[in-house]
Design goal:
This protein has 217 residues and is an all-alpha fold. It has a domain at 1-78. It contains 11 helices and no strands. It has helices at 2-15, 24-36, 39-52, 59-75, 79-89, 99-110, 113-129, 134-149, 156-172, 177-189, 193-206. It starts with a helix and ends in an 11-residue tail after the last helix.
Length: 217
């Protein structure tokens, strides 16, 4: 309880007045929080979440903490911590439309054939629940092409769906290099190589020099 008393004000300050959790802006703001999180804070926040799971704490704040911890573990490429966070706390948040998106990101990181298939399934579920959230839509398109590139059974219809989705994502948010990179990968899988090269060149032109190009979410 002492740890809770020490850090609870931080949560009130950080997570009050966030955009709705169904929006891309919510996801982006919490990603920025995760980028500044230290390992000590990660451990403290995990303890706080564990101690608060059966309490009367604001569930939206708890979900925001869960998203930050998941994002931090994923960005640190610590799959075991990512899986642990989802296994320990995820059941509390299954009613949140963004939750299948987090599951999809986890299974994509796990990377086995079965996990990659699960990543596509959960990405599709998230896209159905959040049909206007471009981060979720991009992840679904990227999950499909990632599965195809890893030898999974992806139908031509699914590939066409991925192409339509990424085109919509780019129409809604045209200034993000990764989206063009995903479009290039999908076009290449369709055999439309000249268009794929054009999309990749567009991504290269947009990408900041210090960032690694065309990585997965």
């Amino acid at each position: 309880m002492e740890a809770n008393a020490l850090i609870q004000p931080t949560f009130a300050e950080r997570f009050t007045g966030l955009p709705p959790h169904t929006t891309r802006e919510y996801e982006l703001k919490l990603t920025k929080v995760a980028e500044t999180l230290s390992e000590t804070e990660y451990n403290e926040w995990t303890l706080y979440l564990e101690n608060s799971m059966n309490s009367e704490q604001n569930p939206s704040i708890l979900f925001s903490i869960f998203v930050v911890l998941s994002t931090y573990a994923r960005r640190m490429k610590n799959i075991s911590h990512f899986k642990e966070i989802v296994d320990r706390f995820g059941e509390r948040f299954i009613e949140y439309p963004l939750y299948p998106h987090i599951l999809s990101l986890l299974y994509k990181e796990i990377g086995t054939a079965e996990a990659i298939e699960q990543a596509v399934t959960f990405a599709k579920e998230a896209s159905q629940k959040l049909p206007n959230q471009v981060g979720v839509l991009h992840n679904y398109a990227e999950a499909i092409i990632h599965a195809r590139e890893n030898g999974m059974m992806i139908t031509e219809e699914e590939l066409q769906d991925a192409g339509q989705i990424i085109n919509r994502v780019i129409h809604l948010t045209p200034r993000y290099a990764k989206f063009y990179c995903t479009r290039g990968r999908i076009l290449a899988a369709m055999g439309r190589f000249s268009e794929a090269k054009e999309a990749i060149r567009r991504a290269i032109d947009m990408e900041e020099s210090e960032k690694r190009l065309c990585h997965s979410d």
